[in-house]
Amino acid sequence: MGRTATLSDSHRTRSRGFSMVELAVSLTVMLILTAIAIPSLVRSFRTYQLNDAAARLSDQLKFARFEAVRRNTPVSFLMRGGPDDWTVGTDSNNNGTLDSTEKQVIIAGFVTLLPSGAPPPSTSITATLGGSGALTTKSGAVGAVTFDARGAVSPLAVDVWYLGSTSNPEFGYRAVVLLPSGAVQIWTAPAGGTWQRIG
Q: pTM to 2 decimals?
């Protein structure tokens, strides 16, 4: 009996934990899988940031239009800021500034509003919209858009805001297009590619 107990105890001692070889192989496999996954995760995160910024800008435009129709009076959508961060929102009281009580969002960080020369040419957008004139680029400069009491853009124009990264163009671009009727569209384009509507 003493011998059986000794064999059993030594068997338990040998089966506890991992050997150094097993641990090294496990860590190597884990590092390889992590190295494969990280670029995909970064690309997904950057895509999410672009889509989120475009959606927030689109929502602000829709809210400004809604306020104009609800109040039955012209309401302005304002853009303020510089090259690194932008504040966009609805000037509900029409005093020409974005007050702290008015609905607004900040676009900052990886995604910023870009001037017209940075993203790919907008020929595919204008062709899809019927080719009726050029788009008026509103991003990259301080400015405003006014919605009349019917929710249309006043004066009538097709306005566009380009979003992307100045330092990482490989993640692509988004464009928020405001039609004369007040309807909003979201477009996407890879770096050097053509625009396609996504919303």
A: 0.80
